[in-house]
Amino acid sequence: MVEINQEDILELLCRRLASFANTEQEITPETNLITQLAIDSIKLLNLIMELEDNFDISIPLNALTDVVTVYDLANLIYRIKSNSK
Amino acid sequence: MSSTIITLGDPLMQESDTQPSSKLSMAATPTANTLPQRLADFDTLTDALEYAADGATGYNFYDAKGGVRSVLSYSALKQHALMGARRLSSLGLARGDRVALIADTTPEFIELFFACRYAGLVPFAMPIPVNLGSHAIYVRQLRGMLESSQASVAIANLDFVGFLEEAAEGLNADHLQWVGTPSQLELLPEIEVVFQPNSPEETAYLQFTSGSTRMPRGVVITEQALMCNLRGIVRNGLEVRASDRCASWLPFYHDMGLVGLVLSPMAAQLSVDYLATRDFAIRPLQWLKLISRNRCTIAFSQPFGLKLCALRVRESDLKELDLSCWRAAGIGAEMIRPDILRNFADKFSAAGFDERAFLPCYGLAESTLAVSFSKINQGVMSIQVDTKTLVEKKMAVRVQAEGRKFNEFVNCGRPLPEHTVKIVDDNGEELPQMMVGSVLVRGDSVMTGYFNNHEETNKALKPGKWLDTGDIGFTLEGDLYITGRRTDVIIVNGRNIRAQDIEELAEQQPEVRSREASAFGISGSDDTTVVVLVVECRLTSVEERQSLMSRLQQMVYMAFGVNCLVELVPPHTLPRTSSGKLSRFAARQGFLQRANMADQISVVQSGDR
Asked: Which stretches are annotated as coiled coil (chain B) (predicted)?
């Protein structure tokens, strides 16, 4: 399996999230998923499904409770990915 | 009534002691039972389990890929529940003490629920956190429930016990004696006790209905009320037979999930196949695959769940599905819009789904679960009523001429036996059929009240034991039609959100004074509901106003998982009643006017409670 580092995840995530944003908004690690991207429940489910398929991981719901920014989410994926090896 | 006498040293129990339930067997329980079927004619929940435990059926849990994760036959459930009851007994609790359980879709939750009943304790299910960034607010919601219930014990699996421990900090230690995981509970000694049989008048469980941190409402349901409702569901609503099998993704912490798809099947000794709510939400077709593969006949959903299925399905999926076995597709828990059901039926008829399986029903946790069912095998019956007459005269008249504007409402059928529904006007006077008003229910399934909350109890329970459901509707030829919720409940994507709970969050911000926030729902594009929060605000700086708006949006999202439109208005903008109470109905009218959305203005009925 190809090693993936935190930065790659962050970059991929920013690109994916750009398609969720309704404006030309620039996505940075600090972007707030709730207030700036307005991720509603259906979008969130779609995103989780994509991320799980893409990274071959399972994202537990309890972990999302500490995710507010793009950086938080990237960090979570990285941690799950590293633990699953 | 059976009394349960337990002897220690039973080899079967010692064996299962070392084998967690999840390892017992990996073959799902059969549909056909070895026992004659009894349709919920028991005095108590444990009586029902005692009978079911002699058969071969039970609960099955599936993983996200459709594999069997664990199997819990009713026989194993009884053994494990008794063990759990003996361990709980070592804590020296009093009869009727409350036990809080975070209700993930696991065998452990069901085992502990029944362990409580064997030990004479009162369990209640608490939700699992599902929203982004919800950590802090979820902990506060848990603490609210622990406080309101004065729980003595709180149990959660490893994923969630951390939240529980945080919530327990700072609570009154006189009440909460023990917090831990099911495996930690297994380390407690089993006490040899002869359990007292439960009586029908005793409380069976509590059901929390609100995400409020300050004023949670725990519905008190007695054994009698529960068994009455289970009988109604199994015999009258579903006309259950021995060949039935259920499938469910509904969360165990909701009344429809717990009463409808955990307790009802057990009371009729049916097998059930479970998919975790999270797994359904991400891959909804797994639920349909389960139904197809296991030839399930009964499966309930909110309309939102059906919508998710229809959104996600591909042509290739349809070829793999055979839904012709599905005879009762119960629909409830939110306003039923016929177009969502039609759309589902259109998509899935190619997979053998018969639209006559649709079974609209109406109910609420305050009446255990079910109040009325439409006639089984008939599908959705609906009526198109003239919009103008509905709005101006609060009267439901079948639309006569072509081209007139109409509203379509689904027939939710007749009340269960031993239950009566009446429609009343704002003064509590009973209305004739076709007249729209508040829906009141009386019957043996109705709650005794909200736990430790006289104020809310008195608002909901009217003289003569009538429960004010908070919903608006009319009757026609004995059948019930729901036309709307009152403005104090907002339903978004299948979630019921109390307007009061959103306002309460707003008022917790330092810039917002009490009674200066009003929340309600409006129809957005694509027929979705948008939550609007109007706040009176004295701030003048753009930055401060922006900061407040973002914070409010974020708080509402974290607590309820929905986006919300925040409008800041000058003080004294929100309309108040003569008694100084905010009127959400009028606040909504005002908002729609300001937003140039006047076409929506008159559709919603008034009725702030």
From this structure: none
Are A61 and B130 a contacting pair at CB < 8 A? yes
CB contact under 8 A, A62 and B163: yes
pLDDT by residue (tens digit) across B408-452?
999 999 999 999 999 999 899 999 999 999 999 999 999 999 999
Confidence of residue B211 (pLDDT cuts 50, 70, 90): low
8 Å CB contact between B76 and B52: no
Domains of chain B: 11-282 (3.40.50.12780), 383-485 (2.30.38.10), 491-600 (3.30.300.30)
Mutate to test the interface with A, among B282, B493, B496 (most CBs of A within 10 A): B282
Read off the pLDDT of residues B276-298 as tens digits, 9 standing for 90 and up.
998 998 899 999 999 999 999 99
- CATH code of the domain made up of A6-83: 1.10.1200.10
The residue of chain A with its CA nearest to that of B282 is A45
Task: Report how far residue B296's alpha carbon sits from residue B304's, in angstroms, rounded to the nearest whole number.
Answer: 20
Q: Does B163 touch chain A if contact means CB atoms closer than 8 Å?
A: yes
Residue in A with minimal Cα distance to B129 = A62
CA separation for the pair B229, B243 (Å, rounded): 22
Q: What is the pTM of this model?
A: 0.88
ipTM of the complex: 0.89
- Phi first, then psi, for residue B441 (nearest 5°) are -130, 140
**For A67, which of B128, B133, B160 is closest by C-beta distance?**
B133
Selection from B498, B362, B371 nearest residue B447 by Cα: B371
